[in-house]
Structures
1.
Amino acid sequence: MQTSQDARKAKLYGKIGKLIVQAVKAGGTDVVGNPRLKEVLKQAQQASIPKDIIERNIKRASDKSQADFQEVRILALPHLPCCSLTWHANC
C-alpha cells in the first residue's frame, strides 16, 4: 500500500510543481507582486508539500534555460474544454 501512497504524492507534487513553474514564468518570484504564485503556494501549503520541494520548483522556474510550460485548451467534447500543461507549443 505504501507504493500507491507514494504514487499519489508524486502525482500531486508534479502537478503543483508545474503550476509553480508556470506562475513564476508568468509573473516572477515575488509573492506580493504575483497573485497567481500566491494562490499556488497556498494550494501547496494545504496539500502539505514540503518547503524544499516548493523552493526547488521556484529556483528551477527562475532559471533562464528552463523551458516554459504552456496551457493548452483542447475541445474534447462539444462545449467541454479540457486543459493541460505541456512543454511543446505545437500540440
2.
Amino acid sequence: MPEADTRDDKSFHEDIPSPEQGFFLKGSGAYDWGMKNRLARIFRPDSGRTVMLAIDHGYFQGPTTGLERVDLNIVPIAPYADALMLTRGILRSTIPATFRGGVVMRASGGPSILKDLSNERIAVDIEDAARMNVHAVAVQVFVGGEYETQSIENLTRLVDAGFRYGIPVLGVTAVGKELTRDARYLGLATRICAELGAQVVKTYYVDEGFEKVTAGCPVPIVMAGGKKLPELEALDMAYRAVQEGAAGVDMGRNIFQSESPAAMVRAVAKVVHEGARPAEAHELYRELSVPAVHA
C-alpha cells in the first residue's frame, strides 16, 4: 500500500481563480469535451480556421480527374492540409493510419451523377465512423431540391447519432442546376443546417452578401471550392471568404487539379491561416512549383 500523504503544506493557489475553459470556435462552447476535441483536430486552435482537402468526389462521379490514384496524388500532399474530406472506402483502403490530420467522412450518398443527386440516404453507420476514429461526418442537404425533406432528415438523424458518440456533423449545402446560388439562398440553407444541429456548415462563396451569410449562421462556415479556377482566382476567392467571415475552406478541384497540388495547398494555407493577400500567396505557389535543380 502507498503511504498516506499527510503533509499540511499543500499549495492550492487560492489567490488564482480557475480559468474558464472556453472554446475557440463560434457556437461551440456548450459541446462535450470529445466533440470539442474532434473539432480542434479539424480547425487550428491558433487561427480558428481550417484548410480541408475535399477528395470525396468519387462517391457520386467515380474516378474524378486528379483522383484517379489517391495513393499517388493525394497521400503525399495530405500532410499540408488540416483535414481530409473523404469516403470511408478511401479512408480504409488508401489513407495511412499514421495520418495526423483531421478526418471528415462523407456519410450520405446513393445516386450517381446519372440520377437526381438529391435522392441521398445516410450511407454510413455512426458506429463505423466511431470505429474509424473520424473527427466529423458530412451530409449533403438539398434545400429546395426534389428530396429536400429527406436530405434534412438525413442531417437530423446524423446529428442525434453524433451527439451520442461525440462526433460533429458537417452540413453541406448543395447547389444544383435548378437552385439559385446567391446570398439569400445560401443564407437560408446554411441557417437551416445550423438550426437543425450541424456543428459546421459548408457552402459556396458569392461575390455579394457573403458576409451576411456567415454572420447569420451561428456555427462556423467553411467555403466550398467549387469548379476549377486559375490559381490566382482561387486564392482570391479563399481570401475574400475568410475576410468575410468564413472559418476556412474545403477545396478539392482547385487543389488536386492544379498544376502543382502541393504548392497550391500550401498557398491556400498561407491565405487562410496567415491572412496573406492573394498576390503574395500566388507568388509562394509559383516559387514552390519550380522544380528543384540538382547539382
